[in-house]
Amino acid sequence: MRILKFLCLSIAFISLNVMAQEQNQEEARKPGHTNQNKFKQLYDEFATPNMFRTGSGAPGPAYYQQQADYKIDLEINDETAVLSGYETITYTNNSPDELTYLWIQLDQNVRSKDSPSNDINSSNVTPAQSASRFASSYMSESFDGGFNIESVTSTDGNALTHMINQTMMRVELPTAMKTGDTFSFNIKWWYQINNHVTDGGRSGYELFPDGNRNYVIAQFYPRMAVYNDVEGWQNSQFWGRDEFALPFGNFEVNITVPADHLLDGTGKLMNREDLFSSDMMKRYEKAKKSYDEPVVISTQDEAEAREKGRSKKKNTWTLYAENVRDFGFATSRKYIWDMMAVKLGERDVMAVSLYSKEGNPLWEQWSTKAVASTLKSYSRMTFDYPYHKAISVHAKRQGMEYPMICWNYGRPDENGKYDDRTKYGMMSVIIHEVGHNFFPMIVNSDERQWTWMDEGLNTFMQYVAEQDFGEWYPKALSSGDAAYPSRRGPAKNITGYMGGNQDYIAPIMTKGLNTYQFGNNAYGKPATSLNILRETVMGRELFDYAFKEYTHRWMFKHPTPEDFFRTMEDASAFDLDWYWRGWFYSTDWVDIGLKEVKKYYVSSEPNQYAKNYAQSRNLNLDELKLVYLVEEGSDEFDERLRKGTSADNSPSLKEYMMDNFTAEERKTIKQPKYFYDITFEKPGGLVMPIIVEFTYADGTTKTETYPAQIWRLNDNEVSKAIASEKEIVSIKLDPKLETADIDTSNNSWPKEVKDSDFDKFKNKVKG
Ligand SMILES: [Zn+2]
Predict the structure, then answer these.
(1) How far away, in angstroms, is 440 Cα from ligand 1 center?
(2) How far is the C-alpha of 696 from the C-alpha of 410, rounded, in Å?
(3) How far, in Å, from the CA of 392 to the mean position of ligand 1?
(4) Rounded to the nearest 5 degrees, what angle is found at the Cα of 19, between the Cα atoms of 18 and 23?
């Protein structure tokens, strides 16, 4: 008997739902369409998995990568600022393909006189400008800093046929290279080093008033291009903005500079004893055991003494690096040099800084600690930093990364004073550039094609590392800052860009050269999207595991975007195709709002809905024993309904409870009194979880999250029926501003009345 009654009631509800569905189907006679569903898998966009790269996002059984080893002899002539080099490249063909030529990158040719790199930017006549600007724009010869290639020879001294196309040089192989073959050849070259402060660039020197220079030297030698299963030979020229794609290899580099210069770079310093004074050696040994504070190896006094001289003698510094994709170095008379040790697992790594007195007092306080903190944060999220050191070099207006070494800005004024902007800017750029050791120096993506894979992943990690730094070094924070004030990462910081003019926004999956707002597109949006994915969509446990898996799969290898996307899903059982599609392949933005909230009470009186139903089916309403819900404020609503419980208001419900539950069960059963029909709208194109905060009459709150899949069958609007024992007095969407919702004016019920500017002005005057 009890069961029979329950069944009757269920059938009645099912019938009611069927009626509604039939109505909808009749209305839906619209033209057909293809699958535009935002949850559709990315098979059309992704490359097909193969033996090189699997569907799981891991390297496949046939994965290979080429090897390029270098022996380079370099000399800087400090009087002429000329860098000359003689290098031997040993190239190993690990591909299954036969190679008849090699491509070498000549990045410095971006500064050659006839470089077309400036011609790709449109320009206009400025009707009024300063004389110096006018002279430099229209009257002066442009700087010629391109490569002078003196010879390209085989190891037996014979010239190799080669041709230069802009920033790339093709060298003909005397005999084709088969799988496993190795070929060595030599290049002799020189170029005029640029002043990076006046002429720009990621490499060059800063000239100080006393004639001293600080050289930060990179992409300075003819470098092997990448050959792989995705592109064949890298064929995208260096136009100056998109960065680099490089194979791994070992470097043996001898660098000759004036004897009063200090120098550090990628790799282990092989002849330290010959170059360091006994004092420096002693301090260096001390630094290796100093885990809390940096030890100064070369003091400011010593640096200032060196600055005054111009030694005619030379020193050669020998560096050796294994398994790096590039090589950079910095040298000057002006360097103060400090170091401290960082424990990573069982290993000690050195955190190192090189800076001139102009960087103090900021640099002696925070540079090396920022390096150490970054290594710890990134190692926790990825893998233990595998190299033996990481150096931060102070260079005006620079922020640029190479294996084990990077250049960073952030300089106090002449009196050593600095504001928060300078301080945080300096800390952030150090964290960022040291972080690049992981992406893309070790997780070696193709920066030329996919800027976001290095800048985006790295800026996401920068945010994590900045928050750690603020926690681990609270003294680094300015008074009043409870946490590190990260610029990129928090969701609310990207809404201006994402909601901006669509003519000047490109999907993240765009080659960096072709994007409009480089910082937002390649750094800010991907970093923020990963942060939202971690904090809001997947949760830290799933995200961190999958992210770590990606870094382990691809450390010292060459991943593509699909390898990242696929691994994140493969390791988390979280289908994220919808997330990549929306955030990475489109310029859609997030805007989810509350469209309507209706409130219902249970009533004993049959409502019109039930009456229509009974009449259309010729049924007797009394026999159906339905529970009726009426909307507050409607004609059917009676104020008295507010007083009673749902069971008080509905004889059918009361009877059902008496028949189906024991007295004991009835005491503990949920008895919701308030019923809400909430309609969410989605003016934004992105599908996202709906985060709803309910505030009850007693002041308590509760947050519910509906998964993004709630939008799978209706991309515009969805509803939720909420039954509550407590009265809801207000509803807020995305209360912590964690989804990058660009318009929060539709996020509240009742609608929040924001002060008009006039009201604010009035209050200000009053206050
Ligand atoms: Zn970067």
Answers:
(1) 9
(2) 50
(3) 14
(4) 115
Residue 674 has pLDDT above 80, yes or no: yes
Q: Is the pLDDT of residue 8 over 60?
A: no
Cα 458 to ligand 1 centre (Å): 7
DSSP string, 690-725: EEEEEEETTS-EEEEEE-GGGGSS-SSEEEEEEEES
Q: Ligand 1 centre from 446 Cα, in Å?
A: 13
* Cα-to-centroid distance, 526 and ligand 1 (Å): 13
pLDDT tens digits for range 729-743: 999 999 999 999 999
Span from the CA of 432 to the centroid of ligand 1 (angstroms) = 6
**Ligand 1 centroid distance, CA of 195 (Å):** 21
- For residue 750, cis peptide bond before it (omega within 30 degrees of 0): yes
Distance 456 CA to ligand 1 centre (A): 8
Measured in whole angstroms, the distance separating CA 141 from the mean position of its chain's CA atoms is 39
> How far apart (Å, rounded) are the C-alpha atoms in residues 754 and 766?
18
User: Measured in angstroms, how far is the CA atom of residue 523 from the centroid of ligand 1?
Assistant: 8
Q: Please choose, from the candidates 541, 539, 542, 565, the residue with its C-alpha nearest in 3D space to the C-alpha of residue 553.
A: 565
Task: Identify the DSSP state of 474.
Answer: G
For 84-98, give the DSSP string.
EEEEEEEEE--SSS-
Distance 187 CA to ligand 1 centre (A): 30
For the cut 90, the answer to whether the pLDDT of residue 724 exceeds it is yes
Ligand 1: centre distance to CA 429 (Å): 8
Rounded-to-integer distance, Cα 70 and Cα 224, Å: 10
470: Cβ contacts below 8 Å, ≥ 6 apart: 476, 477, 481, 483, 484
pLDDT score of 9: 42
How much is the pLDDT for 752? 74
Rounded mean pLDDT of 196-221? 96
Task: Evaluate the omega torsion of the peptide bond into residue 61 and state whether it is cis, within 30 degrees of 0.
Answer: no
Answer yes or no: are the C-beta atoms of 346 and 235 closer than 8 Å. no
Question: How far is ligand 1, taken at its centre, from the CA of residue 194, in Å?
Answer: 22
Q: Minimal CA–CA distance to 510: which of 241, 713, 736, 708?
A: 241
pTM above 0.85, yes or no: yes
| DSSP state, residue 270 | T
